[in-house]
Amino acid sequence: MAFPTLTSLARACLRPAAVALSLWLAASAAPAMAQGQPLSPEQRKAVTDLIRETILKNPEIIQDALIELERRNTVAQADAQRNAVAAEKARITDPATSVIIGNPEGDITLVEFMDYNCGFCKRAMEDVTALSKADPKLRVVLKDFPILGPDSVEASRVAVAAKNQLQGPKYFEFHNKLMAVKGKVNAAKALEIAKEAGADLAQLKKDIEAPATKAAIADTVALGDRLGLTGTPAFIIGDEIVFGAVGQAALKAKIDSVRRCGKTDCAG
């Protein structure tokens, strides 16, 4: 036989106290409200005293209220982000501001906003690579989201310009090598790796300065702001934004769910 804990007893006692408080407040305030009058000083003092006494005897009220507030904020934020994803769907996968790898006609799309100087992005690179190789129906959209300083912006400008010469698996190889660099990634390092991948450096340097390159990065940064992205990596699967390097298994589970029921959580 299981016995109730002190915590469960306290929470059980909280319910009738809260109900009684609500009924008392309603009964006390009703006559004044019916006549369009505010509570009298005596009524206000009685209400204040009762609330104080109830909270002191049941401090869990505050804890429960904070937990509920956090839950509501989380739900509201998730709803806002889903609405933002729906509104920005075309911009999120726009080829002009993205690199598409894997199956371009895949039935499920995994979008990653990343920064070449982000340690967690470097960790997530292995997960994205493994998923792309294991799932022939997966389309992966990479978006340069350089938020970690000038070096990141420089590296992203090289990467965005490099897609004019490097496509498909060749670009993904360049991307992975750049992401695997130890230490700071800047323009010099990105140019070095692009040259190793077969890019013509003279043309690449011209493309780096092209208005389209700068516009693509500015567009993605603005898009990230509208989506409420505050860090990298950030993934979009279906209508959900997934923050952080959550691991291959977690990403695969969401991809499988979208494929099965159209949502990242078929039980929800």
UniProtKB/TrEMBL annotation:
UniProt keyword terms in alphabetical order: Isomerase, Signal
GO molecular function: isomerase activity
PANTHER family the record matches: THIOL:DISULFIDE INTERCHANGE PROTEIN DSBC, THIOL:DISULFIDE INTERCHANGE PROTEIN DSBC-RELATED
Protein name: Protein-disulfide isomerase
UniProt KW Flavoprotein keyword: no
Signal peptide: 1-34
Annotated InterPro entries: DSBA-like_thioredoxin_dom, ScsC_N, Thiol:disulfide_interchange, Thioredoxin-like_sf, Thioredoxin_domain
Residue ranges constituting the Thioredoxin domain according to the UniProt record: 90-260
Protein species of origin: Bosea robiniae
Keyword Hydrolase in record: no
Gene3D superfamilies on file: Glutaredoxin (3.40.30.10)
Any coiled-coil regions, as ranges: none
